[in-house]
Structure formats: C-alpha cells, structure tokens
Amino acid sequence: MQKPLIAGNWKMNMVINQGVDLVMRLRELIKGIDAVEVVIAPPFTSIHHLSHLVADSPIKLCGQNLFWEKSGAYTGEVSAEMLAAAGCRYVIVGHSERREYFKETDEAVNKKVIAALKGNLKPIICVGETLAEREKGKTLTKVRSQVKKALAGLAGSVVKDITIAYEPIWAIGTGKNATPQEAEEVHNALREHLFEMFGPDAVKDLRIVYGGSVKPDNIDDLMAQPNIDGALVGGASLKADDFARIVKFQHIA
Ligand code: PEP
Question: 0.90 cut: is pTM over it?
C-alpha cells in the first residue's frame, strides 16, 4: 500500500508572495512528516517559484489542469512536459469546476490522463455526483461511469500512478461534507469497480481520496474509514494551520 495522500488545491488563489508565505509556514508545521504524502496545487504562475522552496521538504507540487497536446498553437494551455519541467509531480484532472465552467467532457479527461502519464505526471482524477443525482440514487452509476471513461485504454501497469478523488459536487466549497459512511460506501464501490477493470495486482497501490469540505474537525473520522486513502482539500488548504492539522490526521479507527 502507498502512503495516504493529502493534497491541497489552491484553485485561483494566492499570488506568488502569498504562496511563498503559505509554503514557508507549512514547511515548519509539517517538518519531519514522513508517513503521509503531502501535495499542493498552486496556480501555474507560482509553481516554478515554489519548486525551490519545497525542494528539501516533504511537499510535492501539482498542476491544477493540463492540456493533452505536447506543444503548439493552443493559446492559454499548459502541457504535461511544461508542468513537469516547472517542478510538478502530480496534476489534477477533471475537477468538477473544470467540468462545469470549462465544459470538460469525460473524453477530454481521458486524453488528459493519458498525456499526464506520458509526461511523467501522476494524475489525480476527480469524479463525483451532483445533489440531484444523489437524490435520485444515481451516485454509484455516475462515478463508475466517470472512472471507466477516464481510464479507457490504459494498461493495468499504470494504474499504480493514478489517484482517484471522490468529490461529491454538493460538498465542494459548501461546508457540507459527505459523512464518513457515505464517502466510504462510494470509495468501496469504486475500488471494486477498479478491481473488475484492472485486476488485483493493478489496484493494490491505487489510492482513492475524498474531497469536499474536508476540515481539521472532520479529517480524523474520514481517514478512519478503510477505503479512504487521503483527501483533496480546497478551502482549508489555504490556511497553513488547518492544512497542517489535516496532514497530521489521527487514525482513530
Ligand atoms: C476541491 O475543490 O477539490 C474541494 C474539495 O474544495 P473544498 O475543500 O473547499 O470543498
């Protein structure tokens, strides 16, 4: 099994100096932490600058998005190679905000996942249902379909480099998190689905993390669930104390 993964998605927040302050403080607060993989996803404009600050720390850098082509006339886009050269090891793909505001389809997510892996970046693939889908009992159908399409055409040998982030859309930035039991049910179903798709060897190292209003006061209960392997954190990753407390979750099972 891989270490738990705690990733902070800064979204469109933090100019360079604010990012530097946050990373400096975070470095101090999580010094010596080795049992958890800690990842931050700053805006593109800060990544290279921050790469020097995280070099001798447990923190790894992550892009918030990428385009699937390697280079060319694609104004405004960033490739896997560019992110890796700037210092990223991970990239978020298919975040619900990208699916909603930028109309990213499952097919686009699949192309991005393939491009990330080819470019030596580990994709964190976001899936999740809307409130209406949950109320109609369609949660598992939706997330299974998103995962299947995101991973179409991939060999089992690359699955260990993939993280799935289950992020119920109704829980993102709303303060309403899924209960640990609700999240566990979906994580368990996704793990079974991935097992059916790729077999036991491929999925033994695959992490499924939860995202959606993760805070210092709910992380311990979430991480106590057997199928929750970490968290993707939005708002609380912008506060060094809160994010550090999330990284230092207590396993209270
Ligand atoms: C996210 O955007 O991935 C997220 C989980 O946000 P928040 O923690 O703010 O709900």
Answer: yes
Q: Report which ligand 1 atom has the smallest distance to the Cα of 177.
A: 10
194 Cβ contact list (under 8 Å, min separation 6):
147, 159, 164, 202, 203, 206
The answer to whether the beta carbons of residues 34 and 82 sit under 8 Å apart is no
Give me ligand 1 centre to Cα 196, in Å. 29
Q: Phi/psi at 179 (nearest 5 deg)? A: -70, 155
How remote is the CA of residue 96 from the centroid of ligand 1, in Å? Answer: 10
**What pLDDT, on the 0 to 100 scale, is given for residue 253?**
40
For the chain, the domains span 5-252
What CATH class is the domain 5-252?
Answer: alpha beta
The reply to whether ligand 1 has any atom less than 6 angstroms from the CB of 172 is yes
Name the band, by pLDDT with cuts 50, 70 and 90, for residue 1: confident
* ∠ CA 18-22-23, rounded to 5°: 120
Residue of 95, 133, 187, 193 marked catalytic: 95
Pocket test for ligand 1, best of 9, 65, 92, 97 (most atoms within 8 A of CB): 9
Q: Are strands 88-93 and 59-63 parallel, antiparallel or unpaired?
A: parallel
Task: Report the chain's mean pLDDT, rounded to a whole number.
Answer: 96
